[in-house]
Specification:
Layout (H helix, E strand, L loop, with lengths): L30 H5 L3 H7 L9 E4 L4 E4 H4 L15 H13 L25
Antiparallel strand pairs: 1-2
Length: 123
């Protein structure tokens, strides 16, 4: 379960869906992965705090997606494998179990937009 960090600021895509209630189905808001990586994210990000390196924004779907479910070999150093190839399918199956895909939101975090803040510029 993602623990709230008091006073922390995370930058979220303005088009991202609002965070669902704890236990509700995931809607791709990205809050949990922007606060801290899950156990699988810790392996691919090599860190325990901050945004997960494998979190990707889908402009088409206007949702965040776990890169380990989209194209996992990119995040484990096997960039040359085809997205729908056997290696990616096997890693994706393992990743689904590790991130508890389909279980529901486990981020007990209150989200509020601080007054007078603007997101960093896109590069």
């Amino acid at each position: 379960m993602v623990r709230p960090l008091s006073g922390s600021v995370i930058w979220i895509q303005p088009e991202a869906p609002p965070k669902p209630a704890v236990g509700a189905p995931c809607n791709g808001c990205g809050v949990c992965c922007l606060v801290e990586p899950c156990p699988l994210g810790m392996l691919v990000s090599l860190k325990r705090e901050g945004a997960c390196r494998a979190l990707v924004w889908s402009e088409a779907d206007r949702q965040y997606r776990c890169g380990m479910l989209v194209h996992p070999s990119r995040y484990v150093g096997l960039r040359t494998f085809r997205p729908e190839g056997l290696v990616n399918r096997l890693i994706r199956r393992y990743a689904r179990r590790m991130i508890a895909a389909g279980i529901g939101c486990d981020a007990a975090i209150d989200i509020e937009a601080p007054a007078g803040t603007t997101p960093p510029e896109k590069r």
